[in-house]
UniProtKB/TrEMBL annotation:
The keyword Methyltransferase does not apply. The gene is dennd5b. The keyword Repeat applies. It comes from Gymnodraco acuticeps. Keywords: Guanine-nucleotide releasing factor, Membrane, Repeat. Residues 153-198, 425-450, 700-724 are annotated as: Disordered. Residues 970-1092 form the PLAT domain. This is DENN domain-containing protein 5B isoform X1. It comes from the Eukaryota. Residues 700-713 have a biased composition (Polar residues). PANTHER family: DENN DOMAIN-CONTAINING PROTEIN 5B, PINSTRIPE, ISOFORM A.
């Protein structure tokens, strides 16, 4: 829960701070609620008229009895307190959120109870408890005013029956308001009569509220006190003492219970008991959690709890204010040790509906009206919204929603706790009612009964995680069945327990024994609620104690003192997130990776760091003590790291602690007594709450026996203040950084209720705009630091080491931010995604413009050209609409929110996000039509900064679209480019290609012969190439291309420069250099080659508008290197022996580094084995060094020729028996080498001699045989004929050192791509 419960330093330890009476001010008369005027102002602003000139007329279409009128604070005692200033507007608005309501004798006038909360800017909280009842109106002016309004309404409704054209408002906020203002009950002739007022025959009643404002949430005690106060007013006889005595007593003579103690004080008729947890226990939570679980069902509540932990927008919806408060407080009390850090308004007054437009996380409660449907409720944004319909036990969750770790087991444990108290874990059980008419209970009516039946049917439906369960009936059946009883006894004897039946029996027994021992039913109810509350909370608390048992090890404490830490807070990393996640069980990661990015977790870590210099925050102190205790028993057992569920072990003792406190009263407050006041004033009149004497209630006694506690607290506060000053830290600096820099929206945790002028609303929206911009800056910075910081360390080698999980979380967070920005200030809500809706509007408008100017191309859409190496590729159009079409064609994505997120990921991967959004927003007329004046997207300067922050993301490479949508079909374009001078593109053979990537391969695709294309370069020289388009499932990052042909026809020889492959959706282009012949009797006789890919980066000149790029990743084989080690003109390049030795060491080193990275962060092993600077390339140079004349009789000799001759020698020597004398292991090695070479030679693939050598090296590395094969080849006499004396292969010291280097690869499991080993069964 946000804010601590401790009373501020100078506040006396009083149970209650204020007693307030709200109702109608007979002097000012009837005033319409400010809500109508506010909506007229907003509507005028939306339509572009002068809002201040808008007439403030009254709504005569609605019956006056259904309208809301302005309430006033009629009295408050005391007038004001220095430590807790009275906020009159806020209290009035929250005591009567709908304003005054009127009734006649024909209407229901049941008293209602609700609570509210006021959060101050420093996060501290004040609680309000309100008892609302109806009092007869005695003022003739009010009665005549109501009579006049009724007559005007009747006249208006008769004239309204004639049809007239009325303009319908399109504002989503207005439709929200109208849906909330619909009639309370179905329209019928009887209800119309009941809704009218005639002063001659009707008695008029008006609502009045009694309110206690307290520093701590003693809900049960306050409810009972206010209920007794109302009973004293309505009773036939006057109360024992004047009401002033009871008010004075609770304000000045009832202290707060000390921590770990219980307190008894006296109401008007009965004593009231309350208790406060000790310092080492979970903090006070008096709202009945069982009711929250019953209303929603356990599974639904756990889901809402998860949404709260992930700081989504949560909207609670119910007709009952107290239900809203119970669920909101219930959820936030389960968060221990974390605290909700954002907007928290469990009861949203009607005049604050514009706050639903807030583009920040919030937890708000909205009152529904009977008869209104969820479908009529239009909310400004729903992309990240968790909608909780409390009355119908129904929730709507956001998309991409990770489950809470061990969710099933958690639900099971919570259900068992509820069941042990006789509460159904599956259905929304009806609220328990005490004997007699309790405040807030509603008499049953036929309509209400129908609704209850409907709810029961909904509960039994099972679609909302609510299974039908009539526990008591089940138990009766079991107990009445002799066979089942015997069966149960048998299972017990064999050691099997029937837990559910035992739990049922215990729960029912607990209910039957209630009320015994001289305690009232209300006392028993309170004890039961307190025990159940603490057990449910302990179950959740133990989950966090298990999950974060080691959190301290990952806290980064880098600042020398508090001042320097606060000053550099934003630049500092306080928690080692990557290491923490790597230490967690795999199933926890989806939830934890999101959770550790939240504000509540950041604040928790901040509090931990600050505890070096200050007293520990209370929740943190309790949590750390629990972890220390767990460690004492556990000694950091490995179980803490496993994903097995650990049940809470302290349920029984926590309930016993609470029970002992409530059964044994530690302190009894002074009894109410007669005060020194004038006799005759405030005399008793049945049914009317009197005007109390302010002079005796505005000041308290000075000789209380507990007043010395105040002085002690004051002295403690003084000492603490001196210590703080001694630290030399300015309070304003601390406030500035702790309240502003730490989080967004923290100064908006509670909307300011005091002043609702248009200027204040505008100021609030301006804060939202600033907050969104700051959040965008922080998010993009975090994304860049995570990517670039590690890329810089890698110096461009290998992939960035940010984990896929972390990256995905950050991108999901960016998607959420963009949705919130596009939802801010929206005029008309269409669909759940505001961004996608805007894009659809843009698309429609662009199509309309294209139709109007069919000939003229869209000038602002640039074409993306390619650099010269990919000149053969047709240019790919850079277009927002084109990318939209790609997303729309993906059948896997079903919702608008999903489409918007996919489009963001695609644009980010293409480095076009900023450019696309700029293009989207350049249509200012459309933006003005869709958004209100205060919207973020209409603040020009902030919008420009926002786009600039997004532009900075172009400096890093993301594969966030390719890596997430792995099953979609993607079109790929393949272009085969011949070498220009030595060959033409014509070939009579039938070429084929197979493209492989990290996610799979395309399979062999025959390329038709009629796809020859011609392009012209900048000098207008023609170039021909083969181009083909094919569609297959997403291949991911492309790694290899197999290229070949069937050698048919006269022109079967083919000299290929390279193959280009482009993903037509993301635009990623890969170049696969070849530089070799394909054909029999030419080069190495290969009809098939495996080519290794490298990503093609667009040239800087052409892409200057899209920002710069990261250093290239691992490079693939370039043409220069390939030519240098083959039979072509590159033979002039000969590396020195030192360079060759260095190349082998570097190649092996790269492979070792690859395996030392976490599995999800590794690049392509194929590139390290077969690409440039790869193992194959280095060993090829090693075997070529000192090779004798390359041409014997005009025939090219390859390294494979030497290998074949060596194998022929070994096999002949083996047959002659020369090898039989060698050591057995050497003989086995010789056999393995012969076996592998023969297998490669006998394969049906025509991969050529260099391809065969590459395959031998790869297989040798995989099967850990390379270091054993090299000595065999070195010892073979063939080497003397084929190598110079100076060759590295004949230098024993060099060979020995290389064998040692190659042996280091034995520790790693090398796996080869299918494209390399295809057709080889070894």
């Amino acid at each position: 829960m946000s804010g601590s419960f401790s009373v501020s330093g100078s506040a006396p330890c009083r149970f209650a701070h204020y007693f307030v009476v709200c109702g109608i001010d007979t002097e000012t008369g009837l005033e319409p609620d400010e809500l109508a005027a506010l909506y007229q102002w907003l509507e005028a602003d939306r339509q572009g008229r002068d809002p201040d000139a808008a007439a403030t007329g009254e709504n005569f279409e609605q019956s006056p009895l259904k309208r809301t009128f302005k309430s006033k604070v009629l009295a408050r005692y005391p007038e004001n307190l220095e430590w807790n200033p009275f906020d009159q507007d806020a209290v009035n608005m929250l005591c009567m959120p709908k304003g005054l309501s009127f009734r006649t004798q024909a209407d229901q006038r049941t008293p209602q109870f609700h609570s509210f909360i006021i959060t101050r800017e420093d996060g501290s909280r004040t609680y309000g408890f309100v008892h609302t009842f109806y009092e007869e109106v005695t003022s003739p002016q009010i009665c005549s005013a109501m009579q006049t309004l009724t007559q005007m309404h009747n006249a208006e409704s008769t004239s309204a029956n004639t049809p007239s054209s009325s303009s319908s408002s399109s504002s989503s906020m207005d439709s929200l308001a109208s849906s909330l203002d619909e009639a309370d009950s179905p329209t019928s002739s009887s209800s119309r009569r009941a809704g009218s007022y005639d002063s001659s025959r009707d008695t008029l009643y008006v609502s009045k509220a009694l309110c206690l404002i307290t520093p701590m949430p003693f809900m049960h005690a306050c409810r009972r006190f206010l209920s007794q106060m109302h009973r004293a007013v309505t009773a036939a006889t006057a109360p024992p003492l004047p009401l002033e005595s009871y008010v004075h007593n609770i304000l000045y003579e009832v202290p707060l219970p000390a921590p770990g103690r219980s307190l008894k004080f006296h109401g008007v008729y009965e004593p009231i008991v309350c208790q406060r947890p000790g310092l080492g226990e979970l903090q006070l939570a008096d709202f009945p959690l069982a009711e929250a679980f019953s209303l929603l069902g356990v599974e639904n509540l756990v889901q809402v709890f998860t949404c709260t932990l992930l700081e989504m927008q949560i909207l609670l919806y119910s007709h009952d204010y107290q239900r809203l408060m119970t669920v909101a407080e219930g959820i936030t009390t389960l968060l221990f040790p974390f605290q909700w850090q954002h907007v928290y308004v469990p009861i949203l007054p009607a005049s604050l509906l514009h706050f639903l437009d807030a583009p920040v996380p919030y937890l708000m409660g909205l009152q529904s009206k009977e008869g209104t449907d969820r479908s009529t409720l239009e909310l400004p944004q729903e992309a990240n919204l968790c909608f909780v319909d409390i009355d119908n036990h129904y929730i709507e969750l956001p998309e991409d929603f990770p489950n809470f770790p061990n969710k099933t087991e958690l639900i099971q444990e919570l259900s068992e706790v509820l069941l042990s108290y006789g509460i159904s874990a599956n259905t929304g059980a009806p609220p328990r009612t005490r004997p007699g008419s309790a405040p807030g209970s509603t008499p049953s009516t036929p309509g209400r009964e129908r609704k209850t039946v409907a709810l029961r049917q909904l509960e039994d439906d099972g679609r909302n995680g609510n299974l039908a369960g009539e526990e008591l009936a089940v138990l009766e059946l079991l107990q009445g069945n002799a066979t089942l009883e015997r069966l149960q006894a048998l299972t017990k004897r064999t050691g099997v327990t029937v837990a559910r039946v035992d739990a049922l029996r215990a729960g029912v027994k607990a209910q039957l024994t209630e009320g015994q021992g001289g305690r009232t039913a209300a006392d028993e109810e309170e004890l039961r609620n307190a025990k159940l509350n603490v057990q449910l909370r302990e179950v959740c608390a133990s989950r966090f104690t298990t999950m974060f048992a080691d959190y301290e090890a990952f806290v980064i404490q880098s600042a020398p003192d508090l001042e320097s830490w606060l000053t550099n807070r934003e630049q500092m990393h306080n928690f080692d997130k990557a290491s923490f996640l790597s230490d967690q069980p795999e199933p926890y990661l989806p939830f934890l990776s999101h959770f550790i990015e939240t504000q509540m977790f950041a604040t928790f870590i901040d509090n931990k760091i600050m505890s070096q210099w200050e007293d520990k925050e209370p929740l943190l102190r309790v949590f750390d003590a629990r972890i220390d205790k767990a460690r004492l028993f556990n000694v950091r057992a490995p179980s803490l790291r496993s994903s097995s569920y650990q049940r809470c072990t302290i349920l029984k003792e926590s309930a016993q602690t609470v029970e002992q406190r409530l059964m044994k009263i530690d302190h009894t407050a002074i009894h109410p007594h007669l005060l020194d006041m004038k006799i005759g004033q405030g005399k008793y009149e049945q049914g009317f709450f009197p005007k109390l004497q302010a002079d005796v209630l505005n000041t308290g006694p000075t000789n209380n026996k507990w007043s010395h506690r105040t002085a002690t607290a004051q002295r403690r506060k003084e000492r603490h203040r001196h210590q703080t000053e001694h630290l030399g830290l300015e309070n304003d600096l601390k406030e500035k950084f702790m309240q502003e820099a730490r989080s967004l929206g923290k100064n908006l945790r509670q909307p300011k209720l005091s002043d609702l002028s248009p200027a204040v609303i505008a100021q609030t929206n301006w804060k939202f705009v600033e907050g969104l911009l700051k959040e965008c800056r922080m998010k993009t910075k975090r994304m860049l630091v995570e990517k670039m910081g590690r890329e810089a360390v890698e110096l461009g080698h290998g992939e960035a080491t940010i984990t896929g999980l972390e990256e995905n979380t950050l991108i999901a967070s960016l998607c959420d931010l963009l949705e919130r920005i596009w939802s801010h200030g929206l005029q008309v809500k269409q669909g759940k995604s505001a961004l996608w809706s805007h894009m659809l509007h843009y698309h429609a408008r662009e199509e309309k413009l294209e139709q109007q100017q069919a000939e003229s191309p869209v000038s602002h859409v640039p074409e993306r050209r390619k650099s010269d190496c990919s000149m053969a590729m047709p240019s790919l159009r850079v277009s927002l609409i084109q990318d939209m079409r790609h997303i729309q064609s993906m059948s896997e994505i079903k919702t608008d929110v999903g489409r918007a997120r996919a489009w963001i990921r695609l644009s980010l991967e293409k480095k076009l996000l900023s450019q696309h959004l700029k293009q989207l927003l350049c249509r200012q007329a459309l933006t003005k039509k869709l958004y209100k004046r205060y919207a973020f997207l209409r603040c020009e300067e902030e919008k420009e900064q926002f786009l600039f922050h997004l532009l900075s993301l172009n400096t890093v490479d993301y594969f966030c679209f390719t890596s997430v949508f792995t099953t979609i079909m993607i079109p790929y374009r393949v272009v085969i480019i011949p070498i220009k001078k030595l060959s033409n593109a014509m070939t009579t053979s039938n070429p084929w290609v197979c493209v492989s990537g990290q996610l799979g391969d395309s399979g062999i695709m025959q390329i038709p012969k009629n796809v020859l294309e011609m392009t012209f370069d900048s000098a207008f020289r023609p170039h021909t190439h083969i181009s083909a388009l094919f569609k297959c499932q997403n291949l991911g990052k492309m790694t290899t291309v197999q290229l070949g042909h069937d050698n048919a026809g006269l022109l079967a020889k083919w000299l290929v420069d390279c193959v280009m492959v482009r993903n037509e959706i993301t635009g990623h282009t890969y170049k696969f250099p070849c530089g070799r012949w394909l054909g029999k009797g030419v080069d190495d006789g290969s009809l098939e080659r495996v080519l290794i890919g490298e990503p093609v980066l667009p040239s800087g000149e052409e892409d200057s508008g899209r920002g710069c790029y990261t250093p290239p990743l691992q490079r693939s084989p370039s043409q220069i290197r390939r030519i240098s080690v083959t039979s072509l003109s590159g033979r002039g390049y000969k590396p020195t022996s030192a360079q060759i030795q260095e190349a082998i060491g570097e190649a092996v080193n790269n492979i070792i580094k690859h395996f030392h990275k976490p599995e999800k962060e590794r690049g392509s092993l194929t590139v390290l084995l077969c690409g440039e600077s790869s193992l194959v390339s280095a060993l090829e140079q090693f075997f070529r060094h000192g090779f004798k004349s390359a041409r014997l009789f005009q025939k090219t000799v390859f390294v494979w020729d030497f290998v074949e001759k060596a194998i022929a020698y070994m096999e002949s020597a083996d047959q002659m028996g020369d090898l039989q004398e060698t050591a057995e292991p050497l003989g086995r090695t010789c056999q393995s080498l012969c076996h592998y070479v023969n297998a490669i030679n006998s394969t049906r693939r025509n991969i050529g001699k260099d391809g065969k050598f590459q395959l031998l090296v790869c297989l040798g590395a995989r099967d850990r045989l390379l270091p054993q094969w090299v000595p065999l080849l070195v010892e073979c006499p063939v080497i003397q004929r084929m190598y110079e004396d100076s060759a590295l292969l004949r230098d024993r010291a060099t060979v020995s050192s290389h064998i040692d280097v190659l042996e280091t690869l034995h520790d790693f499991p090398i796996t080869l791509e299918a494209s390399i080993v295809k057709g080889i069964a070894l």
